[in-house]
Amino acid sequence: MGPIPLCVLLPLTVLAVVVAVAAEGNAVQDEYTWPQWKVPLVRKRRTVPLSSPNFSARPQSELSGTCGIECQRRLPAISLDDLEQLLSYETVYENGTRTYTSVSVQGFNEVTAWSGNISSSSRRKREVYGTDTRFTISDKQFSTKYPFSTSVKISTGCSGVLVSPKHVLTAAHCIHDGKDYLDGVQKLRVGILKEKSRRGKGGKGRGGRGKGKRRKEDKGKEEVEEKEDNGGRGEGKGKQRGGKRRSRRSAKSEKPSFRWTRVKQTQVPKGWFKGVSDGLAADYDYAVLELKKAPKVKHMDLGVIPSLKKLPAGRIHFSGFDDDRPGNLVYRFCSVSDESNDLLYQHCDAKPGSSGSGVYIRLKEPGKKKWTRKIIGVFSGHQWVDVNGDGTQQDYNVAVRITPLKYAQICYWVHGDSSECRVA
């Protein structure tokens, strides 16, 4: 066969380069796309009644005894029976009664091997590192809008995040200390930020009843949201003439306030309880609260990501109600330093009160250009970690990551039907 003419070889070379560049582009694109995970099924096996809790525990400012990355390497592989015991859970109802539900896990061996990468970055001091990088979201135009509007306050002093129209994900230690439920859980409430407006003189501030009614064309965005807070009740007739001046006078807005909603039931995994998980309790520091009434606020879905270190920038975001800035929503972001199969170690600036916040990232939906935020962890807070397994304690800011198994369990709690939770 003779030599290939240059006029043929050149186009082929160009085509090969184009194909290579396109393939590389697709590989880069995949880094920005939510992976699809087949998750196991968590099914209810049996539910039995328990005696009512004492509700005598006190809130914990920080946790200790967490088995860290190196510590966990020395533990034996967990069996399916042990795993089912850790994922079994207690449910506490608003009337103070309690049940225990054992579960079965199906399809666990079908799930792609779950592994987290571990980095060798340096460890630092806890909570706030040097310059405080937290942002106070005090402007109602931001704090009551997505994604910040998904953040909620728990009446025990923690934060949480809406993961369905009426379900809140938070940290287990905000509800239970490992031995008993906290004082106040029997009357647990969740606060959702809403805009607070000052009505005109004589107005009752409740759907525009009484004096101070407003013209329909002057309601604006603020009153539409207030109508949602009022359960869709009317804003009053509002057909007075010359109402513009009164409308302007009554539209002066203030700092957002909370609209509190009672909790119908609370679910905590058994893996969080003392003497059950042999040092792995921090891996199960999460709980789900079902609200009696669904607030008309957009929620954030759950997501599963195998390694944050492989993501571009590897940053996480979360917002909560830090104790040192009362009444304000505080937002922060930072890079993840270390990660294990179940925990994320990071240096996000945080203070007590932010525990239970939903940790999220933003990636593209598969096959689409749309960027979507999803919850990939629950901020647990400052913890003293047994790093080497020899009892030496080091302090970290830690988040519990959403694994395929935890996704399956939380999804089952939310939907009540595990068949809706096959793919994350």
TrEMBL record:
Biological processes, Gene Ontology terms: proteolysis
Lineage: Eukaryota, Metazoa, Chordata, Craniata, Vertebrata
Compositional bias annotation for Basic and acidic residues: 215-238
Pfam families: Trypsin
Signal sequence range: 1-23
Species this chain originates from: Labrus bergylta
This protein's name: Inactive serine protease 35
UniProt entry keywords in alphabetical sequence: Glycoprotein, Secreted, Serine protease homolog, Signal
UniProt region (Disordered), positions on chain: 193-261
Chain intervals with Basic residues compositional bias: 196-214, 239-250
Keyword Nucleotide-binding belongs to the record: no
